[in-house]
Amino acid sequence: MSGNRKVTYALDFRAGGQSDWKNETLSPLAPGGVPRIARLMALAIRFDGLLRDKTIADYAGLARRGRVTRARMTQIMKLLDLAPDIQEQILFLPFPKGLNERNLRPIVSRIDWLEQRRLFNKICGSDCPSTGSRLMFSCVSAESTSLKSTS
After folding, report:
1. Which of 29, 69, 65 is closest to 47 using CA atoms?
2. Long-range contacts made by residues 134-143, C-beta under 8 angstroms, separation at least 24?
3. Which of these, 125, 121, 122, lies nearest to 134 by C-alpha position?
4. For residues 141 and 126, which has the higher predicted lDDT (pLDDT)?
5. pLDDT of 25 strictly over 60
6. What is the rounded distance in angstroms from the CA atom of residue 69 to the CA atom of residue 60?
7. What proportions of the chain, in percent to the nearest 5, are helix, strand and coil?
8. Which phi and psi angles does 94 have, rounded to 5°?
9. Which string of DSSP letters, residue by residue, matches 67-94?
10. What is the pLDDT of residue 97?
11. What is the CA radius of gyration of the chain?
């Protein structure tokens, strides 16, 4: 193989903190129209899969590969502590105005899913449909019915 080959690289010289990101307007919607919070939720789910498969050892490894701090990675991964119906709403339903990861931090810190739903509805207001608390209650009542029938 004596032929010459041409190799082309694209370099970003702004990557060392020299970028003018302050002048850019940050939109909650990605170029494809997907809300930023939905992308973060999807990333958290994907990262959780990588951790469970042991493809990546820990949050520090995720942070290194994602070029974010460990604290930021923890913030993203805490989205997995949200009630499943809230996660579903973030991923698939229309984007409520003003919903972002920072607004969700107080909700994520709550353990009780009913309390999470109440706070989530307070943040979203009329922009979001009812989070599936009816679904949860119907599951609980179905479980209690099946428990009563077995005893």
Report:
1. 65
2. 135/85, 136/83, 136/85
3. 121
4. 126
5. no
6. 8
7. 60, 0, 40
8. -55, 150
9. TS-HHHHHHHHGGGGS-HHHHHHHHHS-
10. 74
11. 21
Mean pLDDT value across the chain:
76
pLDDT of residue 139: 38
Among 125, 124, 108, residue whose Cα is nearest residue 116: 108
Assign 106 to helix, strand or coil.
Answer: helix
pTM of the predicted structure, to 2 decimals: 0.65
Which whole-number Å values give the CA distances from 36 to 39, 97, 98, 100, in the listed order? 5, 12, 11, 8
Fill in the amino acid letter for 24. Answer: E
CB of 28 closer than 8 Å to CB of 36: yes
DSSP 20-43: -GGGSPPPSB-TTS-BHHHHHHHH
d(CA 85, CA 117) in angstroms, rounded, equals: 9
Question: Per-residue pLDDT tens for 41-94?
Answer: 999 999 999 999 999 999 999 999 989 999 999 999 999 999 999 999 999 877
